[in-house]
Amino acid sequence: MPHGECQCRIKVHLRMRPSSKPSAALHFDETKAMVRIDVQKKQSNVGGPPRSYTDQIVFSLDSVIQTTNQETVFDSCAKQLVEDVLQGYHGTIMTYGQVGSGKTFTMTGDMKVYAHRGIVPRAMHRIFQEKETKPEAGIRVQMSYVEVYNEGIYDLLQTRGEPAGSLMILEENGLVELRGLTKMPVENEAEALKLYFEGEKLRSYSDHSLNQMSSRSHCVLTFYIERRTGIRTLQDVTVAKLNLVDLAGNERVKKTSDYRGHLRREAMAINKSLTFLEQTVYALRLGQGYIPFRQSRLTTLLKESLGGNCKTVLIVCAWPEDYFLDETIGSLRFAQRVKLLRTTAIINKKLDSAGTERRYAKEIIELRQELALKDALSGHTRISYDELTEEAKTELRNKIEAFITDEKELDQIPVENFRQVSHSSIKYHVVAKQVKELLCLFKEAHVSIRTQLEKVLAEYGLIPPPEEPPPEDSGVGELEGHGFHVGIAPLDARPESPASLGQMSPGAKRCGVTMLTYKENDVPEGVWECSSDIRNDAFLEFKNGTEEGQQQEAIIKSKEGELQIKRRYARDICATINEAKKEIQGVKKLIKERGIIKPDDCAELEKRTSLLTRLRSLKSAYHKAYNELKTVKVDVEAVQQEVRDGKEMLLESFYGWFHTLAKYRGQETEDFLASVA
Fold first, then answer.
1. For the whole prediction, is pTM greater than 0.85?
2. Residue stretches of the annotated binding site
3. Binding site listing for ATP
4. What are the domain boundaries of the chain?
């Protein structure tokens, strides 16, 4: 499990509204966080009147709160979640219940009485208290406030004078965003409260028989908190969200007397969205493959809170009277389902490129100082870790050319920047910048000499001349005036080996995977003192009789097998491309032969439409195959290079083995190999 990731269950709390006429059917156990409801039912009795009996329903929650103390509610339900958000986790606090059960009072409270503040102002106070007490964290806070009213999403913090309209929901990579949403930066608690009160004024309220200030919309207040984790790790930035959701209450029209037109429509929209929310929770509980988050705006906004990267708390508000017993049972059943849901919350870190760059620059300086100190202690005071200048490169190039022409010895070429790495009993010299530059310059000289040699050999007919590049119109096919060069010829186009290749020098012989045709300067001293037959026999002995040779030979064969598969796949793609081109030309010819079609000729129009559709399909297949061929061609070149590297490594290992045996046995190579044979 990654650092900071945790599997957590949604916490569910029950808050009961104080009532002068509590129901005798409700029994609360705050210690065990359980609620028992005694429901009177009737059972049919054969041959007599229905018989009454009592059925008990038991609900298990995380806590049961019957107090009116707002601080107790905050400490029990929301305080720990706010602390988690300050540590970098996403968090959501929702209130759910019937109309008039105290949801808005729980979230907002009575702002006229300080002690009656709800969860929202108390969470604000904790966030900005953290911001003031820890200025080194660089905490930045933004807030947004939206409401879902009649399946429309409206911004409650938009600038005055702008036209009010429903926001559009965008989903990308599983994340939900609102296009055009206002995110206001806030510096202190007073600014946040001011914006919150302005948004409250724009909320949709109405009065009915159960509540004089009934919320007619679902509201979501979100705080976006960005902070740095410390001074020494300024590159670690966490970005967290705290969603405070005040859901509208489900209601029955016959109990609220909402017979007016707009109130009835609002009640229908609220109940519909809450029904979709319950269906979504039920689908998440069953673990279905498809979760209907998009059924309503509310479930889309709560997608991450219910089943994503978030820690969620649900506060169920209920009215403990007999008149609302059915609504209370329904709310508790919903809470029981939500309690079974689990989310995966992680600390949300943001990549700070500026901080990362500063950290890397600091590490480079410290490493250079450490290397300079180590070199000074070991006596290597002339070592430099800076980039080579052009003058230094020119001087090295001149020394290499002199070394190649035997005017200078190898010791006269400076090799200063290196360190030794031990692996078993073999020591490898891992060269640094200067030695890498030397290798690059050696490669340039090698390529130049090889080009000149191939040119001379081609003039004397010893090797075939280099192939000319194909003309512009020799690609696999053209499509609408654009030529494409595939670069892989068909099998019958391979040139036959010239006869001159059969006349090899006496010192050249094929040995399975390569030819031993190296010059004297390319191998250790003493190897070329024996005949080519003995060298080749020794090569076979090394390749088949030593563990190192067998391993390298197995790697080469594996890569060659992979190369054959990729070449075969490339030839298949070439055949597909050629076939597509032929079909494209045939379809174009048919379209051209039909000429101009009369508008009233429906049959011909249908045939032409079919041909055009076929042509577009063929072109799409052609381009797809061509792009795939380019990818395969890159893979083929990479595997070819791996095969070449493997062969060079095999020969290098063989010459080291051959030279070591001849040196430490104290006898001539031919006599030694003869005794081995």
1. no
2. 97-104
3. 97-104
4. 6-351, 352-383, 387-425, 427-466, 491-676
